[in-house]
Known about the structure:
CATH topology: Growth Hormone, Chain: A
Oligomer: single chain
Radius of gyration: 22 Å
Strand order of the largest sheet: 1-2
Structural class: mainly alpha
Helix content: over 70%
CATH superfamily: MFS general substrate transporter like domains
CATH class: Mainly Alpha
Strand content: under 5%
Number of domains: 1
CATH architecture: Up-down Bundle
Largest sheet: 2 strands, antiparallel
Number of helices: 16
Amino acid sequence: xxxxxxxxxxxxxxxxxxxxxxxxxxxxxxxxxxxxxxxxxxxxxxxxxxxxxxxxxxxxxxxxxxxxxxxxxxxxxxxxxxxxxxxxxxxxxxxxxxxxxxxxxxxxxxxxxxxxxxxxxxxxxxxxxxxxxxxxxxxxxxxxxxxxxxxxxxxxxxxxxxxxxxxxxxxxxxxxxxxxxxxxxxxxxxxxxxxxxxxxxxxxxxxxxxxxxxxxxxxxxxxxxxxxxxxxxxxxxxxxxxxxxxxxxxxxxxxxxxxxxxxxxxxxxxxxxxxxxxxxxxxxxxxxxxxxxxxxxxxxxxxxxxxxxxxxxxxxxxxxxxxxxxxxxxxxxxxxxxxxxxxxxxxxxxxxxxxxxxxxxxxxxxxxxxxxxxxxxxxxxxxxxxxxxxxxxxxxxxxxxxxxxxxxxxxxxxxxxxxxxxxx
Length: 424
């Protein structure tokens, strides 16, 4: 009887641990969403275009010179993302993320003292790329992958939807601060908001992985899983790896170009800065919806086909942007483009885990994300060059739509997921 009583007590204790772990993993998802909403990728994409106008007016910079600062971010991110992935694997995501947010607060505050020298503007973005890359998808996607076996697509979509939430808030917040206090103090308000929101949440809720590498399954059983997968070196020998890099680089080139240029494009057509910023916020609302819907669909359908369907929306959105100055059409176009922005990064993270396994996820995904990030600098600068050298935005938009059509064809070449990966 005593033995039976002890067994029952142990079972009840185990059930309690499973229940706590089940609830805790959703706090981890919430932390990842907030972190991504305040992180480097979200805040640069959401605020850069808002600050371009005030900076150019005060310092007389050209559009292409100003947008070239993005190259400092993206080239550095492309080189260092695999290194950050290694740090996440070695030291844990929580430490890397907290250090990244501390650096982000300091650097954004330093923009308050930006002078007319372009090199110092580039230097700040270069330092952002080096020191705050830990606040991007590389760290957070790793955490979600370790916490979720079932519903991983939905969890990734929910976490990555934080980028959309941040993208909705930051343009309007930034423009409001600029109009109320000037662009210099607006940077200080952004830094203060990051310090007040992101850092306490990361400290309290972000947990690197379940105890004893346990992962909750649909049956509610916590299983100790030997992580499966291939190394980065093995992945680079697979043609599929390079197909993924090429496809998502081109997708990123298009959607990031539209994201960064939508405010300058609309203000050039006579929209007020606040209306242009609100239109960009509408784009990021669609990012949130796109990521939630994509995550849900990837758990049920073949992910490359899901991505293909979502690419049809921005092709239509880019066509609408070329039609003229109707604010309603501009908002609709922004929403259609935002659906693709909401799909690309979480599809990339999902495909990395499914094709190559979680064992070296951070290194492999870090490499893929680095190349994807590079597109976010190359694309906007190329569009600026087309606009300034006589083609204007209509020519640039036509080129971007053609590139997306090519990406749809590339997605048709993705193979089925492997049924088994090597475990260690």
